[in-house]
Structure formats: C-alpha cells, structure tokens
Write a structure and sequence with these properties.
The protein has 13 helices and twelve strands. It is of the alpha/beta class. The protein folds into two domains: 1-98 and 242-370, Isopropylmalate Dehydrogenase; 107-240, Isopropylmalate Dehydrogenase, CATH 3.40.718. The N and C termini lie far apart (54 Å). The structure holds nicotinamide-adenine-dinucleotide (NAD). Nicotinamide-adenine-dinucleotide (NAD) binds at residues 13, 17, 69-72, 82, 243-244, 259, 262-265, 267-268, 274-275, 278, 316.
Length: 370
C-alpha cells in the first residue's frame, strides 16, 4: 500500500488538470494511494454543500492533499471554499514559487522567486457588513494579529534558510495602514534579528509591484499579508510564464495542501485545453514535501524539457513567445501524456536544456530562414 493522499479534483478545469497531475505522479513509480473527495460544484450536487466534512476529515487523516481549483461565485452564492479550507485547517502559509521554466512565455527568463502569503486572516478574515439599510456603504475589517504575523514571517525565514535563499523582503503598506501594517512590519523586523544569515528588507506594496515588473531577478523570498500576497502571486506567476505554469502549496503545522495559483478558468472547463503544468508542478512540490527527491526532480525536469522542446504544449505556451516562434497548440491531456512519458526517461545529471533563440531576436528575418 502506498502513501495515502487526499485528491480534490475541484471544478471548472480542476478535474482535467488533476487527472493530468495524477498521471504524471504515477509515472514516477512512487506508491501513492489517492483518496478522492468532492468539493465545489460536484459536492453541491452530491451533498448540498461545497465543502463537506468528509473533505476536511480526509485531509486531517492523510495530512497531505493535491487540490484542483474551486469556483467562488462573485457577489452571491456560497462563501469561498478555498478560504474556508485554509481557515478551518489553519493552513496559514501559502507558498507560491515563481520560476521561469526554460525561459518560455516570459519577458523575464531569470525570474526565480517565492511569494509567501499569510493565508488565514487580513482582508480575507470574512468580517464585513453593510453600514446602512440602503446598501450604499460597506466595511471590510482587515484582521492582523501578532501571532499570525510572527508565524508567517518565521516561516518565510525558515524557508529561505532551507532553500538556501539569500534575502527575505516584507511587503506591506505601513505608511497608510498605521496599525495593521505597522504590526506586521514590527513582527518582521523583530524576526529578522533572529536570522542574521539572511538579508532582510521591506517594500511598500505599490513600489513592490513596480520593482517586480522592472527587475524581478533581484527578489528572492517575499513575505506579505493575505490580499497583497494574493495579488503579488498572480503578478509573479505572470512574470514566470503565466498562471498555467504557477504551482502553490498551503502549509499548516502538520498539514500540507498543494494547489495551483490559478482558478477554475470556467471558459476552458471540459475542453481539454487548459495548461496542466501548474497542477503537475504541485506534484513536484508534494514529492519534495514527502522527501521523494528523485521523483520531484524527475517531474520538474520532464516539465522543463517538454516546455523547452515546445512540441507538445498547450495554447498558452504555444502563443508567440518573446524569444521563440509560435507552434500549434496541443491539448491538456496530450501535454500531460508527453510529460508522463518523459518522467522515467529523463537524465537528472544532464544540464537543463535552454531553447534555441528565435532568429527574429537576432535580427534574422524568419521568412528568409526557411
Ligand atoms: P483563473 O485563474 O481561473 O483565470 C484567469 C485567466 O487565466 C483566464 O484567462 C484563464 O482562462 C487563464 N487560466 C487559468 N488557469 C489556466 C490554465 N491552467 N491554463 C491556461 N489558462 C489558464 O481566475 P479567475 O477567472 O479570476 O477565477 C475563476 C474562478 O476561480 C473564480 O470563481 C475564482 O474565485 C476561482 N479561483 C479559485 C482559486 C482556487 O481554487 N485556489 C484560485 C483563484 C481563483
């Protein structure tokens, strides 16, 4: 019997990308036993609730889960299942690595940073109300506690040390948010003194956005509060090649849930069109968490080589990139099959291949080249 892992396919493109990720995980040969549980739309249909207790029980029991995205309707309908899951299981650290893979689909091929987002409080605490009967004014409460700030900044410094990163940058808006921002800032400054081997600095959120789109290669680990982390991690996903290739992980004290940065992309649901890479790279992170280093390395390298070859890639990676010419788009399942095929074959000792530059970037007319 293998290691039991909770599998939450989710909704929208979730079932397609989690099936792809499972296929790649199985290609490594690591014995896993999937315990599939429904959340989101399928759970509403089957159980009348988007987050049945069985989901929480399964994650508590197995302590590890692979999750697909789950839709949150805007304005009405059920409360976010994603937020509820993080709060109920106290999954306080959302870790989102932004690595440009094979330099594809990005203007910033050197991007390699990690966003660490506090995931249980802030403006996601769910404390909001209308101020008047006419619904002409409303308030949302930004809940920041010293306890949650301390544990997320400690988590970021520990992660930096483990991953041999050199610097942690705290992002806040303490100049305007003079209580909540300052509380987070103080927690960061005090924690930084305990990690003299790691450099630390701070940016205001607005400046950080500008800095990131100018020189992302200068950043290493970024730690921030819930909403700023949500926004920055999408921004960083864009820097690294797009939402289709951005994995993520949620950690509590003893639980870990791996889910991509992207949402349920309803317009692509059921079309076998979505990029499976983000969910597949969640499997890489899951294997690292389980100590299955070779399996993790194989998954990462198989993804890298598939993207570098650019023969079997989904539409988002087939678009005219910044360095290479467009190719025809493959389906989600075809790309997953190609990555799974490579997993047992890749040479872990060989240098990671860099794709040949597009002749256009060297000033050669591609029309003449043929
Ligand atoms: P989204 O991430 O679903 O989509 C944003 C854009 O990226 C769209 O153009 C989409 O087509 C594209 N995209 C996303 N994933 C892709 C993939 N794998 N391959 C190719 N293209 C991809 O964000 P949204 O449209 O703002 O949200 C849709 C729903 O997902 C909402 O209900 C939202 O609440 C939910 N959501 C869930 C999670 C989660 O489950 N953790 C995260 C974010 C959003």
């Amino acid at each position: 019997m293998g290691r039991r892992v909770t599998l939450i396919p989710g909704d929208g493109i979730g079932p397609e990308v989690t099936a792809a990720a499972r296929q790649v995980a199985e290609a490594t040969g690591v014995a896993l036993e999937w315990e599939t549980v429904d959340a989101g739309e399928p759970a509403i249909k089957a159980h009348g609730t988007p987050l049945p207790d069985a989901v929480l029980d399964s994650i508590r029991r197995n302590r590890i889960a692979l999750k697909g995205p789950i839709t949150t309707p805007i304005g009405s309908g059920f409360r976010s299942v994603n937020v509820a899951l993080r709060q109920q299981l106290d999954l306080f650290a959302s870790v989102r690595p932004a690595r440009a893979i094979a330099g594809e689909g990005t203007r910033f091929p050197e991007t390699d940073l990690i966003v660490v987002r506090e995931a249980t409080e802030g403006l996601y605490a769910g404390v909001e109300h209308w101020i008047d009967r006419e619904h002409s004014a409303a308030e949302t409460v930004n809940v920041i506690t010293r306890k949650a700030s301390d544990r997320i900044v400690r988590f970021a410094f520990e992660l930096a040390r483990r991953e041999r990163r050199k610097r942690v940058t705290a992002v806040h808006k303490a100049n305007i948010m003079k209580t909540t921002g300052a509380l987070f800032q103080t927690a960061f400054r005090e924690m930084a003194t305990k990690y003299p081997d790691i450099a630390s600095d701070e940016r205001l959120i607005d400046n950080m956005c500008m800095q990131l789109v100018k020189k992302p290669e200068e950043y290493d680990v970024i730690v921030t509060t819930n909403l700023f982390g949500d926004i920055l991690s999408d921004l960083c996903a864009g820097l690294a090649g797009g939402l289709g290739v951005a994995p993520g992980a949620l950690y509590g004290d003893s639980l870990a849930v791996f889910e991509p940065v992207h949402g349920s992309a309803p317009k692509y649901a059921g079309q076998d069109r979505a990029d499976p890479v983000a969910e597949i790279l969640c499997v890489e992170l899951l294997f690292r968490h389980l100590g299955e280093r070779e399996a993790a390395d194989r998954v990462f390298r198989a993804v890298w080589e598939t993207i570098a070859e650019k023969k079997v890639v989904t539409y988002d990676l087939a678009l005219p990139a910044y360095t290479r010419r467009p190719v025809s788009a493959s389906s989600c399942s075809a790309m997953a099959k190609e990555i799974a095929r490579k997993v047992p074959e890749v040479d872990l000792d060989a240098p990671l291949p860099r794709p040949a530059p597009d002749p256009r970037s060297a000033g050669i007319d591609p029309q003449l080249e043929a």
